[in-house]
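Bench notes, afternoon.
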Amino acid sequence: MEEEIRCHLCNGKAELQSEELQLDNGRITIKDSSYYKCTKCGEKFATSEQMQELSGQINTKFVFRRPIINAGRSLAITLPADIVQYYGLKKGNKISLIPDGKKEIKIALP
């Protein structure tokens, strides 16, 4: 049996709800995002488990896999148009590649 969740504001009973979550002014949509809604005062809230699940969805769904290509005598990667537009990148902009262990590289914008 599922544990009863109570509202942190009024102690009313909270019911599990699900809806599309819009982030970044509607540019990012997460379907079936779960949360609780109080039947007494209408407060909406999420448990820490729900927040961790949402964070995991964001981290796995918004990964851009790009092939490494040849560019002259160097190796290069291309950036998706959505990323270029979102960050306002232009040809000639400089970025920093920051090693983060053997399996990760962070990209930093100036």
